[in-house]
Amino acid sequence: MFAEVIIDVAASEVDRIFEYKTIEDVYEGSRVIVPFGVKKYEGIVMRVKDDCTFDKDKVKSIISVLEDTPALTKESLNLVRYICKRYRVSTALALRLFLPSEMRRGKVKPKTQTFYSINPAYSVTEIKAKLSSRATSQLAIIDFLSGSAAEKLNEDGKCLSSVLREKYSDSAVKSLLAAGYLISTEERKHRNPYETLTVKDKHITLLPQQEKAVESVETTDKTVSLLYGVTGSGKTEVYLSLIKNAVECGKTAIMLVPEISLTPQMLSQLRARFGDSAAILHSGLSEGERFDEWWRLRSGQARIAIGARSAIFAPVENLGIVIIDEEHDGSYSSDTSPRYNTIEIARQRCSFNVGCKLVLGSATPSIESYSKAVSGEYNLIKMPERINKKPLPEMIIADMRKEIRRGNSSPFSAVLRGEIEECLKNGNQAIIFLNRRGYSQKVICQECGYVAKCEACDVSLTYHKDTDVLKCHYCNATYKMLSACPECGSTNIRYGGTGTEKVVAELKKLYPDARILRMDNDTTRSKEGHYKIIKAFADKTADILVGTQMIAKGHDFPLVTLVGILDADMSLYFSDYRSRERTFQLLTQVAGRSGRADKKGKVVLQTFDPDNPVLGYSVRYDYEGFTESEQRLRKATGFPPYADILRVMVISEDDAKAIDTLKGVYEALLNVKQNSLDDFIFFNKMKSPVKRMQNKFRYQVLMRIKAGNPGLKEKIYDTALPFKTRSVNVYVEENPNNLT
Q: What is the rounded distance in angstroms from the CA atom of residue 380 to the CA atom of residue 372?
């Protein structure tokens, strides 16, 4: 027998099948060690076959198999092949999506525990008769293990070695082992993430609109259902019911959320309902925890995977349901290679599993998804009412132009200050949202206009007061805070813009007795950072939560009656065709955190552009009106979903090489354009909006082509990718989530 093996090396010259003679226990999907040149490498067996295409006498043999159970399922291998073809990446790179990185590098292994038990070959009476009456410790151990301390033993009558050695001497334990009266066994220990997670199961009877939603998903002949439900309409309970039905039918489930901050909350609900059948996968876990949770899914001990984007590659078999909550969120598109779209991968997984359904849920679905639902490609389900029948919170627009004219230079309008005071006086909670972390956005010299910038990226540095450093939010580099301007020597330095850190400082001045928490990337770096802050706020140990977009969706705080949105129009002016859509989504989502229980909610939306139509739609919660307007605009201007954006990125540490490569790519693609003039809406080469990032120069060829033309996309890939070299990276993005 022979095996087709992919070597775990991402280099393009190694991206091909290598054949080896098999050894015992080698199957499709097995991780193996193979000889490769003068070294040994890890590899994945893609296929096992009877014959070989080379001289059999020259074919080397696999050295060893790394696990008894193949790491990758047959479905995973098929998905790897799809990803390679669809996103033009090496097989090794695609395979890495399916395995914990620490497992690949051999950095993490199963954790084991040693247990002691009485050898069943001897009776307790027999052992005691053979032991000397002076061996008091040994006799005590036999008494201990024979039932006098049942609470110390597991269900098999075994005692953890650490418990026994803490109570009795090492010499007594060793003597019993040497005599054969005790036996020692090694058992695998599961490293359980979020062990302290509060688990409370509430018996909930589905409301009619929730029952109708579950029935619609399960009876439609369409694979994909779009669940469009307002914030607080009970979408989560629909998800849990669909998962329950799938599991009861012997199938498995994948549940995706957009933010790591939402995974503990969802895990708590899944554990309450399904116990240990739920496993969590995300990058915030420790190496051992991620490995153990992945292996519980692969072995079938857990049947439900919960996590952020990467959990779509969970090693579950016989998949029955995939749920993508907040499906509109940009985090579901990968911005590193392979640049996959999670919804595309989910649809492909459904196609590999007969009867598997995909549910996309959101209070503000993406324009693309809603268009597909309205056209009939997706099954459209609407949940237009909150489960408590309460109205959505009242939105009040605060015109910050008038505030400045009145001499108010603080981040808070008079109306927001008044609402915060009222909220605190009534014993309720408030959320203050600003999608910008740090203390100030820029550090500027007032004498010469110098702005502190990152040395590796063409972006300004953000000042973080709590650590007194300047940070680059693109490459995470840190710099000492300026004591004087490096250009002119002036000490007249001022801060420009406001971040969450400064908002907290201002709130503490205004409300010294208020307990305030901050939630952003700087306060949630530890594994349980998100969970601890969310739990503390839910437990009412704080009155005000200040945060970025990670607090905008999915959270349910019954006592929150006020949401303040600072710089509500900030995202409207990004040079991105999605800026209007993202602004509407963000405002609607964060507003939905208010008034979710019995108390009426309010939202104060601060803006310098109160007449902007996007804000008007937001205040009225008019998703369908906004969507119709946005669809007309995109159709007229030729943007998705009525066109596809393709961007060829050219990146290099050598600016001259990047420019030369850009010219070559542009001229080659110009020939493609000349042969398909009617299909091109826009075509040009230019610097990337952020010209330099992490000391690499960035250029792009930007194209818009008519939608639904896979053949032309293939030509663009085929034309651009051969220009990639060791010193110049070239890759293609489709409808990129971020155009910087």
A: 9
Q: Is 426 helix (H, G, I), strand (E, B) or coil?
A: coil
Q: Which residue do the tokens 């999608």 mark? A: 435
For the chain, which ranges sit under pLDDT 70? 147-156, 196, 198-199, 527, 573-575
Instruction: Specify the 3-state DSSP secondary structure of 137.
Output: helix
Query: Number of H helices and number of E strands within the chain?
Result: 22, 30
Distance of CA 25 to the CA centre of its chain: 35
Q: Beta strand 643-652 with 696-706: parallel, antiparallel or unpaired? A: antiparallel
Rounded to a whole number, what is the largest CA-CA distance in the chain?
A: 99
How confident is the model at residue 527, as a pLDDT?
67
Instruction: In whole angstroms, give the CA distance from residue 241 to residue 210.
Output: 9
110 vs 189: CA distance, rounded Å: 7
Residue with tokens 């301007």: 485
pTM of the model: 0.89
The CA–CA distances, whole Å, from 727 to 567, 696, 699, 717, 718 equal 41, 11, 14, 19, 20
Give per-residue pLDDT as tens, 179-188. Answer: 999 998 888 8
To 5 degrees, how large is the angle CA 496–CA 500–CA 506? 80
CA atoms of 10 and 487, how far apart (whole Å): 44
According to the model, what pLDDT value does residue 155 have?
59
181, 185, 178: which is closest to 145 by C-alpha? 181
Q: Which two tokens stand for residue 254?
A: 């994948």
Cβ proximity of 640 and 634 under 8 Å: yes
**Nearest-angstrom CA–CA distance, 667 and 282:** 42
What's the N-to-C CA distance of the chain in angstroms? 51
**C-alpha torsion angle, residues 323, 328, 334, 339 (rounded to 10):** 100
Question: What is the Cα–Cα distance from 532 to 683, expressed in whole angstroms?
Answer: 48
pLDDT digits (tens, 9 = 90+) for 14-47: 889 999 999 999 999 999 999 998 999 999 999 9
- Exposure string of 509-541, with b = 16+ CB inside 10 Å and e = fewer, is eebeebebbbbbebbbeebbbbbbbbbebbeee
Contact 352, 313 (CB under 8 A): no
Q: Helices (DSSP H) in 160-286: which residue ranges? A: 161-167, 170-179, 208-219, 235-248, 263-274
pLDDT tens, residue by residue, 92-128: 999 999 998 888 877 887 888 888 888 989 998 999 8
Question: Which amino acid, 633?
Answer: L
The conformation of residue 422, written as its DSSP 8-state character, comes to H
Q: Are strands 493-496 and 442-445 parallel, antiparallel or unpaired?
A: antiparallel
Report the DSSP beta bridge partners of residue 47: 4
- Rounded Cα distance between 703 and 706, Å, is 10
Sheet holding 462-464: strands in order across?
462-464, 469-471, 478-480
Total residue length of the chain: 740
Burial 397-422 (b: 16+ CB within 10 A, else e): bbbbeebeeeeeeebbbebbbebbee
* CB proximity list for 363: less than 8 A, separation 6 or greater: 228, 229, 230, 231, 233, 588, 589, 592, 623
What pLDDT does residue 74 have? Answer: 95
602 φ, ψ to 5°? Answer: -135, 155
Q: Hey, what are 575's tokens?
A: 């040079």
Report which of 513, 496, 423, 510 is spatially closest to residue 461, judged by C-alpha positions: 496
CB within 8 Å of 396: residues ≥ 6 apart: 415, 419, 602, 603, 604, 605
Other CB atoms within 10 Å distance of the CB of residue 74: 13
DSSP letter string, 590-626: HHTTSS-SSS--EEEEEES-TT-HHHHHHHTT-HHHH
